[in-house]
Every structure is written in structure tokens, then in C-alpha cells.
Amino acid sequence: MSPSDLPYATITELAAAYRAKTLSPVEVTEAMIDRIGKLEPALHAYVTLTPEIALAQARRAEAEFARGEHKGPMQGVPIGIKDLCETKGVRTTWGTKILRDHVPQKDCTVVAKLFDAGAVMLGKLQMTEGAFSVHHPEVIPPANPWNGDHWPGASSSGSGVAPAAGMCYGAIGTDTGGSIRFPSGANSVTGLKPTWGRVSRHGVQALADSLDHLGPMCRTAADAGAMFSAMAGVDPNDPTTLEAPVPDCLAGIDGGVKGLRIAIDPRFVYDVCQADTAAVIDEARRVLASLGAKIVEAPMPSLTTRMYKDWAKLCAVETAVAHEPWYPARKADYGPVLAALIESGHEVPVIELTKLMQDRLVFQGQLRKLFGEIDLLLLPVHPFGNPSAAKLDEIFNTPNGIDDVLRYTAPFDMSGSPTITLPGGFDAKGMPIGFQLIGRHLDEALVVRAAHAYQQVTDHHARHPAL
User: Fold this and answer.
1) pTM beyond 0.90
2) Tens of pLDDT, residues 363-395
3) Catalytic: 179?
4) Which of 80, 248, 255, 457, CA to CA, is 20 to 30 A from 57?
């Protein structure tokens, strides 16, 4: 592998090279640190860099390989950590001013599991304030490496920018309303939102506990599957984690999609999608059908609209609970958007919230019934292609604009369903556009397998920004 290819190597390629001793974790980590040093001043993907820790972990991995100790595909792989995951001795800011100097005493469970698997931490990745929709006013947002005038996604903005720019091989993201999927689509990376409860939230700052999902953001579906398998699993410190066995997503990844029933609701998708997004969905349908999948038309559950229109009410209430230790006591340290969300959470009537929670349960049942008849759902990430930051502000300030942004993402946080977002094409300006595949609960291996099959015959994921 040439030095010019190294920044965009895949995790699975690194694992093979380490086993073959054609690359070493130390030289790869040094190359990553050097690349970050060159690109970070323009991209602002990281909030805290940890080169000393990274090199110590890389040396440990190299010594393990020398002794013949193989822990799996994440061993010796440099990654970035979203800055709401507690990391021992390394500040964890949550994208906020209130925790600007917070230094945890121990690692959160998901970080500890990745370290146990041999991963190397390059640093903490920038994110929006409190993992909501915008960055704190005192933070310089990450820049989309394809075009700095365009949206980098939220809230896992740094987690999308860094792997897209070859500044890490994988990143932890979180998703409450779309925050793995938005930056994955915006930056042309592959992001996996697992089933709710698959990955421990212990030691992870919450936006909305019943909606928060943690997952990997990488450059390929295979890499996302490898990282997920290292992250997931039951945790005694988080009683909401699921006890189902964690699959080895790489074991059956070449199984293809032949015979799978992949559903689309044409009216739900095409009635609001712009032409460039619709073209991506059209190509995904064509490619998946050419691989043997059966594309079927099926209506979305009747309560889908309520799920994305009223998601913000539930999120606001749970965010108000998460911020009780600081808000309103430190209100002056909050940005206006997060503060407004918290304030609105205190104003949601109990009766209205209860009805929403009941409808959420019904929606989950409707979705289970649908997945009794199909294997996967095909959807856009949002209707707007790859919007500029200015255009996105305009959308947010348009009546029902936020509903359209959340249309294809929020329902699957309400249901807790596993979804994978993968690069699906480019618009006329060369900006990437992604799409989603949604699966049954606990069916991460299938969504990874289907995304991998698509990536074996397309090259969208293999194209990179000119930096």
C-alpha cells in the first residue's frame, strides 16, 4: 500500500496488512497524526487531540501482533471518539460551554470496549452543543471536506468529517433524530445506527435517553460492521442494554441480497424529494434489483407522520431532564437553540406527551408487522440532496421545514430500528448524497450485508474529497 493510499485504507485492509506484517500500527498512527496536523486547521473536526495516547496504544498493539496476539479487526486501528463519550483523563466537553473543562475519571463502556479490542484513539471529535442541531456559538463548526460552504451534518459533525477526510479510519457517532445518518450522507461515509440498546450508553452524555443510539461511522459497510461488533453488547452498568448475542457482521457479509424483499413507499419518498435525491433512490433500487433483491412497494405505517412531526416534543422533554444539573442555573453558558429546546421541554403538556408515548408504542407494533412481510426498507436520508449551510438555515426557518428534515430519520429513532446510511451518488456540483436501509430489530448483520453488496458493485464510497 502506497503512502498516498494509506489515509483512505479500510479497516479490513489495515487488519489484513497488520496480520501480514506489511504495515505496523505505529507507522499508520504516525501517518494519521501527521495528516491531522495538516488538515485540522481548515476542517476543525477534532476538539481535543491525543497523539501521546494514540502512539502508546499503537505500540501496545504492535507488541501484541509481534507476540501473535490477535484481538480482531479493530486492533491497531486509529479512530476518533465523539466528544460526548467519557474518556479517562481526556476532557469531554459534550460540545458545550458547561463542560468545557470536564475531565472524566474513567472511560465510558463503549470506549472501554473499543480499547479492549485494540483500537487507537486519535482524539475527541467536534459535535453540536449537547448533541442537538447546532454548534455552540463559541465553537467553530467542522467544515464539510467536499465543500466548506455545505452542511457537515449534525450532531456527529466531526465524526462525519474526519473519516471522510482520511483523518481517522472510523468514528463513534450518536443518533437521536438523525445524527449518524445526516453527517454520513453529507460527507459520503457509511454510518450504522444499531438497534436501540445494542450499544451501552453508560458514561455517554445524553440528549434524549430513550432516543439515543451509538454507532460506528466509517468509509465502508464492512468497516462499520467490524466496528459495531467491537462496540456492542450487554453492559451491567446500563440495564437497558440488550442481552442478545452480538453478531460477527463480517462472517456472512458476502451473502448478498438475492431474494431479499426490499420495500419502498413511492408516495412517501417521491412526493417531497428533490430530483437529485430521487435519482439516488432510483439508482439504489436498480442496483439492488440487479443483485437479485425483490423491490416491492409497501405503504409506511399510518403513524409515521406523527413520529417525525412530534419527535421534537419527546426530545425536548428528555433533554430538559438530561440538563437538570445545569439548567437553568447556568443558562448564560448555553447557546440559544439548545436553551430554547430545554425551555420547550418544560412546556409540553403531560396529556400530550402521554398520547405521543402511546402512539409511539403503536407505531413500533405497526413497524414490526411490516417487517413480517419484508426484510429491508429503502429511504432517503432527507429530501434536500446536499444543501449548503445557508440553504439549510432557510429550510429550518420555513414552515414544516424541520418536519421534512426529520421525515426519514426520526421515526426510526422512535422505533429503535437499525439503519445503515451509505453513499449513493453525487449531485451536479459533485456533492455526495446518501440513502438508508432499515432493518428489523437486532438485524444489523443483514443491513450491513445488504450495504456491502451494494458497495461491491458501486464506487460512490471509494471517491474522496480533493484535499
Assistant:
1) yes
2) 999 999 999 999 999 999 999 999 998 888 888
3) yes
4) 248
**Angle CA(434)–CA(146)–CA(169) in degrees, nearest 5?**
75
417 is catalytic: no
DSSP annotation string for 59-109: HHHHHHHHTT----TTTT-EEEEETTB-BTTB---TTSSTTTT---SS--H
Contact 216, 223 (CB under 8 A): yes
Question: What tens digit of pLDDT does each residue of 323-367 get?
Answer: 999 999 999 999 999 999 999 999 999 999 999 999 999 999 999
At 179-221, the pLDDT tens digits run 999 999 999 999 999 999 999 999 999 999 999 999 999 999 9
Q: Which residue among the candidates 24, 82, 133, 229 is catalytic per the annotation?
A: 82
Burial group, residue 286, by CB count within 10 angstroms (0-12, 13-18, 19+): exposed
Question: Which of the residues 97, 124, 133, 155 is marked catalytic?
Answer: 155
Q: Are 162 and 33 in contact (CB under 8 A)?
A: no
Separation between Cα atoms, residue 226 and residue 249, nearest integer Å: 6
pLDDT confidence of residue 392? 85
> Residue 59 carries which side chain, given as an amino acid letter?
R
Q: Catalytic residue, from 24, 179, 200, 415: name it.
A: 179
Residue 262's identity, in one-letter code, is I
